[in-house]
Amino acid sequence: MANHRKLAAAIPPLLERLHAGAATLRQSLERLQDSPRHWQHYLLQPPFARDAAERLECDFEHPFALAGALFAQLDYCDPLDAAGDARATLQIPGLLAVPAASIALAQQLNTHKVAFAKAVADYKAALSERPAPERDRNLRDLLADAGHPRAHLRQCYRQVLLCPEPPDAIALSWIKARKSIRKVTVQWCEKKLVQLDPQGADPGIQYQLQLLAGLHRSQYEDLRQVQVQSRPNLQVAEIFRTRDGETYRQVGYSATPVLVVTDYGGRLPDFTRVDHQPSQGRRRQRRDLALSSEAFLPALRVYLRE
Fold first, then answer.
1. Domain of life of the organism in this record (predicted)?
2. Tens-of-pLDDT digits for all 306 residues of the chain?
3. Do 109 and 71 form a contact (C-beta atoms < 8 A)?
4. List of residues 6+ apart from 52 with CB closer than 8 A
5. Residue 163 φ then ψ, to 5°
6. Residues 6 or more apart from 291 whose CB is under 8 A from it?
7. Please, are residues 299 and 190 in contact by the beta-carbon 8 Å criterion?
8. Pairing state of beta strands 179-183 and 223-228?
């Protein structure tokens, strides 16, 4: 119990440090926005990015201010009980040319993010014997007591992507939204449903447990969990050129603008121009993974193979 309290006490100051670091980076980017010197930018505007800008009450005419607001938005914009996926994050992909001072502030912010994420993980691990809903409720109460009841953990955790050394070029490419389908067992489904409703008080979960119990043994091998990545990802890679050729380094997927250090008059290095969103295409469905149109266990996104 004492260890649990000690771990809980560590979270509020780390969260405050995280907010302070995000606010400092935001101020740095806003100064670039107002600077008489031109700092190059390249922000893409797929529908989800335009939605994010609207939620942040900013616009793409002020890209550095928009990025600063995005980095500083560590809380949910909507109430926690609002409709929608609580896991969804605000995303605006692209590139921003910044000075070394802004890179240093972003690196410090990333350090705060790692420390906060570890503290939360340690706290939840100390409560591992308790049901998942109780652990989540205790964490939410702790965040509320710290003054941030609407803290968006995914936005708190995600790192600011950086190019801290000037690359010779940057390669951009869209990775289309994907659907992953994996085989699951009856035992796995039962365990997950019980974790969702340990007290047996949710009629919807209890009904799905009954469906699972009534599943014919011949269908045990037909359970498939479907996970859909609803948004495309902008993949970013740095290119460094030497006498021996080119070296590529993956920067990551740009959910937020990548900050690129520049010493060349505020200009970005050469980079790939891409459309604001990937072209739409159809992918043939594998016959052996044809699934029923309605989920068998909606709470787990589990379908039956036909």
1. Bacteria
2. 557 889 999 999 999 999 999 999 999 999 999 999 999 999 999 999 999 999 999 999 999 999 999 999 999 986 544 444 556 899 999 999 999 999 999 999 999 999 999 999 999 999 888 877 788 889 999 999 999 999 999 999 999 999 999 999 999 999 876 678 889 999 999 998 988 877 787 888 899 999 999 999 999 999 999 887 667 889 999 999 998 899 999 999 999 999 999 976 899 999 999 999 887 655 555 544 578 888 999 989 899 987
3. yes
4. 70, 90, 91, 92
5. -120, 85
6. 181, 224, 226, 303, 304, 305, 306
7. no
8. antiparallel
Give the HSE-up count for residue 98: Cα atoms under 13 Å, Cβ half-sphere: 31
Question: What one-character DSSP code corresponds to residue 299?
Answer: G
| Alpha carbon separation from 238 to 96, 162, 263, 277 (Å, rounded) | 14, 10, 16, 21
Instruction: Return the domain boundaries, the chain.
Output: 2-164+256-261, 179-228+283-304
CATH classification number, 2-164+256-261, choose in 3.50.14, 3.30.70, 1.10.20, 1.10.3470: 3.50.14
Closest by alpha carbon to 274, among 231, 218, 238, 233?
Answer: 233
- Amino acid letter for position 112: H
Burial tier of 306 (Cβ tally within 10 Å: 0-12, 13-18, 19+) = exposed
